[in-house]
Amino acid sequence: MQQLTLRTKFILITSAVFLIAAVAVSSFFSGVTSRIITAFALQSATSKALHDKNKILSIIDREVALSLKLVDDDLIRAWVAPGQSSAAKKAALQQLESYRRFFRDKSYFIARAADASYYNADRSMPPEQPRSSRLSRDNSSDSWFFDALRRVDTFEVHLNYDALIRQTKVWINAIIRDSRGDKIGIGGTGIDLTEFLQEIVLTDEPGTAVILIDRRGIIQAHHDKALVERNALEQDSDKRTTIFQLLEQPAEAEQLKKELENLAGQPRRKVAAFPVRINGHQSFAAVSYMPQIGWYTIALVDFSHVMQTATFLPIILASLFSLLAVITVIGYMINRMVLRPLNLLTGAAGQVAEGRYDIALPVLHRDEIGRLTQSFNSMAATVREHTAHLEERVLQRTRELTDANQLLEASQSRIMESLQYARILQAAILPDPQRFDRIFADWSVLYQPCDLVGGDLYWLHESGNGKVLLAVLDCTGHGVPGAFMTMTVNSVLNHIVDTLCADDPGRILQEANRLLQETLRLRQDGESLVDAGLDIGLCCIDLEQQSLTFAGAGISLYYTDEHQVSEIKGDRQRVGYSGSDLQFVYQNHQLTLHSAVACYLTTDGLLDEGGGPKGYGFGTARFRQLLSENRGLDLQRLFTVFAQRMDVWRGTRKQRDDITVLAFRL
């Protein structure tokens, strides 16, 4: 036996003892329990599959019916069709509100094929004011819409992550058709994933599980919520996790594929049941097809949980006795052949740890323990040699690290000096507060770049004929790139008002759009690697006539009087981007001013600032409420309230965008 390795000795002894116990237990256990467990597991899995199928259909059938009714509504179809009017949109939104009240999730969505616009409303949104965004074929998160338009005929039930509302839901995508039967959009509702999993998949029954898959085997619902959300976020269906990947045996995966095809092709066949091994457990799987939604429900019953432990108590006692015998023998042999030699090595290692590197153990056997002892002796000798030269190596490495640290500090210092200088240059183009004091009876500004410098700017120009130009703008980028854009835009605006026009905000924005595209060379192929531009709100104030002309590109003008807070929306056409229309005419809006009217211009940095318990943006509604609650304050005190409210809203989160808010009153 001494010629055998330790591994061989251990395997031979353990195998012999285990086989003796296994033969005795297996012959007794198999004959008594095999048929009982199989029959009971089959019955349990079949019953659960049918029960879960009916439970799912009771939830989804109602939502599908409402969704199909929604997409067939004449008012909604009239709005979704190309060339819709504002009146059609208003009527459709009112009609959608009536549907929303009856949906389980109190939500709906509409996606128009004509302009790829997307609207979504849930219980958190005010009536007739859905969220909206623009879908793009280039955005992988929007591929669901274009894919559904291409392949879905009536409706589909689909699990997906919605980037607009930042939620994963079970979506019912119903096709909207015009009077000729052409597809013009998609509408429907969603069911919250957490609620759906809690009600359908998450079960308190031990040893049972429910999995929902579609026709391709892609998992739509599973007790592992992370797996479901990962499938929802993955836009490429070929990369989503399927039920076949969870099966440990390829033959079981092929059998499942055949059963899925048979169930779909044989409506009278309700359930197919067979054994599978999944996640390391032997289970019975019962599969049932739901043709109404094109999904399958798979009920899994773990063999080990089919019967109560007390039912097989004699078998369990025999198994425990056999296992105890095996463990006793194995423990004795391990102690004799492994633990004792290892104790000697442990003691020697402790002495090395205390600094005695001259330790050497005798090599008594030619097995793994003997080779380990020999390796330990070599290690101790190597440590003894390296320790003699350790101090010299540490000093050398310390010098290298010190030199590298000094170079890093010098580089960082130069970068900070450059940023401080850039901050001084950017501050130099901001209007002097004394000019505001001379022009306005009351004014204030909240200017908070996200970094030392930023992409926001407020701008003032006096034309000399009793008129004043005032603007707030938000350029592409943050930090140094944003600061460069503000310098460029400042120069362009000054050039326009000095040479072309100083009293027509709409024309100034149109000319700025043209000059910026020429300056940045965004329309010349190969000249620009990035797209750049800005949002701007521009006011022309006639001090003598007490009036204001406003034009905006992505920025609105808010104003308050004795009664209410109002908003004049800017045009959606941004300025300077390569995709901006050079022929676009920005609309001028007129406003009469008096001492009770206060005007506000703000960039999206304040409106999008994340905070609150869920990290949502501050939003237009909170901003308007803040103005309404404090419109009696002077603007300096109001902006103090602004700053305090934003600090409370942001909490411990870091500011994520440049913030500029400018207010004035004549």
How does this structure look, described?
The chain is 47% helix and 22% strand. The chain has 666 residues and is of the alpha+beta class. Among the domains are: 311-388, no CATH class; 430-665, Phosphatase 2c, domain 1. The radius of gyration is 37 Å and the shape is flat. The protein starts with 5 loop residues before the first helix and ends with a strand. 29% of the residues are buried.
Please tag this protein with its features.
666 residues; alpha+beta; Phosphatase 2c, domain 1; 5-stranded antiparallel β-sheet; 17 helices; 47% helix; flat
For the largest beta sheet, what order do the strands appear in spatially? 3-2-1-6-5-4
Low-confidence stretches: none
Q: Pairing-aware structural class of the strands and helices?
A: alpha+beta
What is the architecture of the domain at 430-665 at the second tier of CATH?
Answer: 4-Layer Sandwich
CATH superfamily of the domain at 430-665: PPM-type phosphatase domain
Give the biggest beta sheet. 6 strands, antiparallel
Oligomeric form of this entry? single chain
Q: Outline, from the CA principal axes?
A: flat
Task: Look at the structure and give the mean pLDDT.
Answer: 82
Pfam family, one: HAMP
Protein name: Protein serine/threonine phosphatase
GO molecular function: phosphatase activity
Transmembrane segments: 312-334
Summed up:
The protein is of the alpha+beta class.
